[in-house]
Amino acid sequence: MKKIVVLGSGESGVGTAMLAKKKEYSVFVSDKGTIADKYKKVLLHNDIVFEEGKHTEGKIFDADVVMKSPGIPDKVALIQELLKRNIPIVSEIEFASKYTDAMLVGITGSNGKTTTTMLTNHILTAEGLNVGMAGNIGDSFALQVANETYDKYVLELSSFQLDGIVDFAPHIAVITNISPDHLDRYDYKYENYINSKFRITKNQTAEDFLIYDADDEAIENWLKNNKVKAQLLPFSLEKSFDKGAYIEDDNIIINTNSNLFTMSIAALALQGKHNTKNAMASAMIAKLLGVRNNTLRESLEDFDSVEHRLEPVLKINGVQYINDSKATNVNAAYYALESVRTPIVWIVGGTDKGNDYTSLLPLVREKVKAIICLGLDNSKIIETFGNVVDFMIETAGAEEAVKVAYKVSEKGDTVLLAPACASFDLFENYEDRGRQFKDAVRQL
Asked: Which residues does the record give as ATP binding sites (predicted)?
């Protein structure tokens, strides 16, 4: 019996443990922290051996294969020792993909990947296709492979998940965009992070497709200097193509296989330049998979937006409160600031991942009247924007930040939570941060 050790007991870890058990592996789950009750129940119910609060090296080094949760960096001593001993380390995505014949769509990017994944799933489901949505979203891919029989999967993939792939090969890969993010995990080298994103196409063949943003400098430069086997399908707001997606007279034009689809940008449910690009990527996937034009058009018109992504919460005394807790990097915060048309009270800050805020300066000068810091260390934010806005204050929680925002905002303003940072200093994750913000707004 092959032995698998699962490091980390979150969604991907427990999903992998369940699938491995089904495939008759001997399974051991090890978590240095505490295992959440809901996951502990699943492990106990399925008679899966686990430990928490420690890593027993003797048991871990006995593994034939190790599945490492995406949150664990490669630099950790335990991982380095596993590599030294030549024990294979894979991601959940890699492990699960070996046990399904389903057609895979993989979507990555610094921003927009959740929206593009959910929109694609919405379109394919509306067409009546038997499709599962997994990866960085919902139930883990491994758990769905263990329990479901989908023909197709739409997978939202982070760079951390892609770092652990060996043979994983999506039929359709999407790179929505690339901007500096998670540089603390990539030795503060942007090129390492870019290479990580392009791992999504490394096992693709000439039968497969890579959909990408042709306006993105990092993507374009990488493609100039590296060979890709997959067929390239670019999308752009500025250029036009024989094959790909582009804009003409305020219409989106999609041409994947001489089957033309056009639609007015004004009719899209999701507005804003970045959302037009998300719609282009999703529409190209849909056309490659034979979705009918009327289904595609209806789906793009009626899609509801994603929680914690430019989510309107309430309007109070003429002030609009917007939750964009998912803006965990500078580029996402840029989109958020760009999309708001009124004076902004900006709630920003958290765990800095090596951020450079200078690209936000023009927008902050033009639009932001007050900055409310929401992090334990706000020195870089204060240093960058201290001379640019009239009012700046540090707060220690969502409730305090919202109360201050209420005091300094006036009718016609927007209070925008767009942290540009991870949430782990004060919150469990970006969802927790977003929900606490929304709760605080509702209590005003």
From this structure: 109-115
Is 375 annotated to bind ligand?
no
> What single DSSP character describes residue 358?
G
109: annotated binding-site residue?
yes
CATH architecture of 94-302: 3-Layer(aba) Sandwich (3.40)
Instruction: Give the 3-state secondary structure of residue 322.
Output: strand
C-beta of residue 336 within 8 angstroms of C-beta of residue 434: no
Q: Is 264 annotated as a binding residue?
A: no
149 is in an annotated binding site: no
Give residue-wise pLDDT tens across range 269-323.
888 888 899 999 999 999 999 999 999 999 999 887 667 778 889 999 999 999 9
Residue 115 among known ligand-binding residues: yes
| pTM exceeds 0.85, yes or no | no
Of 160, 154, 147, which Cα lies nearest the Cα of 132?
154
CATH number of 3-90: 3.40.50.720
Token duo for residue 116: 């593009």
Predicted local confidence at residue 401, as pLDDT: 96
Q: What's the mean pLDDT in 107-131? A: 94
pLDDT tens digit sequence for 144-182: 999 999 999 999 999 889 988 999 999 999 999 998 877
Question: Domain residue spans in the chain?
Answer: 3-90, 94-302, 311-442
Q: Which residues neighbour 307 within 8 Å (Cβ) at sequence distance 6 or greater?
A: 431, 434
CA-to-CA distance for 298 and 276, rounded, in angstroms? 15
d(CA 313, CA 347): 14
CATH of domain 311-442: 3.90.190.20
